[in-house]
Amino acid sequence: MKAMVQHSYGQPEVIVPQEIPKPSPEKKEILIRVQAAVVGPSDCAFRKGDPRIIKLIYGFSRPKFAVGGCELAGEVESVGQEVKQIKPGDRVLGMSVKTFGAYAEYKCLPEDSPLVVIPDNLSFEEAVGICDGGATALTFLRDKAKLRKGQKVLINGASGAVGIYAVQLAKFYGAEVTGVCSASNLGLVRRAGADFVIDYSQEDFTKAGKAYDVVFDAVGKRSFSACTRVLTAKGIYLTTVPKLSIVIQMMWSSLFKGKRAFFATAGLMQNKANLEYLMELASNGTLNAMIDRRYPLEHLPDAHRYVETERKKGNVIIVVP
Q1: Residue 260 forms beta bridges with which residues?
Q2: Closest among 303, 306, 115, 305 to 318, alpha carbons compared
Q3: Are 316 and 292 in contact (CB under 8 A)?
Q4: pLDDT in tens, 163-206
Q5: Strands, E, within the chain: which ranges?
Q6: 184-194 in b/e burial notation, b at 16+ Cβ within 10 A?
């Protein structure tokens, strides 16, 4: 089968097409014919091995898993003899959080993985896009911040894959939402539901007079120390970027009853219930997919280059023909 592989860390050019053996499902696995996957900043980070913690976990000199990609959507081709709830022909959304492998024509996943059937009114691309940013946003806003109706939340990087779904989820939970993004994306963030928008090139939200119950830095550009001045007395700061500084700040702020800092390995915290919840919200129109660009599988390096411009809006989708 066709796959995009990398045998070293580096620039997008390290990802190359290669024929590899087609997998066969074991007794508790399903074989998925991949139709769509995604590329986001985390995929670029794994490709580069930066931050360094990635190399400590996934291989210091070379990637442990040659085929990247976590989120995928496709059609079930066959199932193992002990699979009970999924059948051939089902349209499914899944996450391969331990072994990656989405950038290929086929992928086997255990039935007990984060894996759900896609609602009939959603496409493969919509489902995998919503999973890409929505799962992370859900973990931070619902589980970490425990966002409540009437709270004020600011989302930095509101037009990105995580940010655009964070805006929609925050509005669903009844919060007042302020989105921070570039001038060209202000309209997009308003349409997603933001009550207020800030052009970061014209205004520094950390120096404004408004206070927020939650500041969610979906792009990891502003520090906890910079954001404390706009947090309420018991406000929460969230960031998606794993740095040593945020780990120290989490530990330090946990010792007090005031302002808190949080980081979460959201990808490793996903489960079937989360994906089912996101698909339900998408099916009833609460969440809408925001797809910026589509690339065929063999153009995966180009997708990485575009993501690294930091100008993407919503999702970048990989289409597997």
Answers
A1: 236
A2: 303
A3: yes
A4: 999 999 999 999 999 999 999 999 999 999 999 999 999 999 99
A5: 2-5, 16-19, 29-39, 71-79, 91-95, 106-110, 115-117, 152-156, 176-181, 196-199, 212-217, 231-239, 260-263, 291-296, 315-319
A6: ebbebbeebbb
Report residue 248 as tokens.
């120290």
Residue 157 in contact with residue 314, Cβ under 8 Å?
no
pLDDT digit string, tens, across residues 277-297:
999 999 999 999 999 999 999
The CB density around residue 288, as the number of other CB atoms within 10 Å, is 17
> Which three-class secondary structure state does DSSP give residue 252?
helix
Side chain identity, residue 196: F
For residue 85, the cross-strand partners are none
Cβ neighbours of 63 (radius 10 Å): 21
